Amino acid sequence: MRLNSGWITELLPRFSCPRRPAIVAALRTILSAHNPIEEGADGLYEQCENLAGAEVERILAQLKSAPAVKVAPHVEAPTVIEATRRAMAKAGYDLEL
Question: Is the pTM of this model over 0.70?
């Protein structure tokens, strides 16, 4: 789950790059495996909600009040795309970017 979320986070800002169709195809491949694990019956979301029990509303309020996460500036360089492709290949995704 953590790796898939990382790849999704890495690929989303690249929608504006010239390789957009390949990026969309890569995201679809990753999400087709990722979404059922998170959103499916007895998926991660449901398991978290069940574990939270009566505390779910308090936990949600805490999450909503958390400070914004600082992000690094977007870099669109061939070396970044290639590094992303190699890292995804190591994780088992054979995708053209």
Answer: no
